Amino acid sequence: MEKPVVAQRGPYGVKVEAGKSYFWCACGRSKTQPFCDGSHKGTGLAPVMFKAEKTEELWFCGCKATATKPFCDGSHNRL
Ligand code: FES
Ligand code: FES
């Protein structure tokens, strides 16, 4: 399994919609950050699904080092 790459050293703020599912890019290779575009193929990594319960702005991890996937936990400050 390959290691995730850093897409951005900070989170992406995204307004999610209640009832919608999102696939967070765990590998860092997607061109449509912070979400998966299929570029993880062959890395052994896979996206993390998140279903929004309400419409709100959330902070998705861009560095891919978070321990609270798919959200930023501040780990990007230690990279
Ligand atoms: Fe990854 Fe904050 S962007 S922990
Ligand atoms: Fe990164 Fe799919 S492109 S997990």
Give your account of this protein's structure.
It is built from no helices and 4 strands. It is mainly β. The protein has one domain. It is globular. The strands form 2 sheets. Strands 1-4 form a two-stranded antiparallel ribbon. Strands 2-3 form a two-stranded antiparallel sheet. It binds FE2/S2 (inorganic) cluster (2 copies). One FE2/S2 (inorganic) cluster binds next to loops.
Shape by Cα distribution: globular
Name the average pLDDT.
Answer: 98
Major sheet: size, sense and barrel closure? 2 strands, antiparallel
Q: Helix- and strand-based class?
A: mainly beta
Radius of gyration based on Cα positions: 12 Å
Compute the number of strand runs.
Answer: 4
Gap between N and C termini = 21 Å
Proportion of helical residues? under 10%
Low-confidence parts? none
Q: Note the run of SSEs as H and E.
A: EEEE
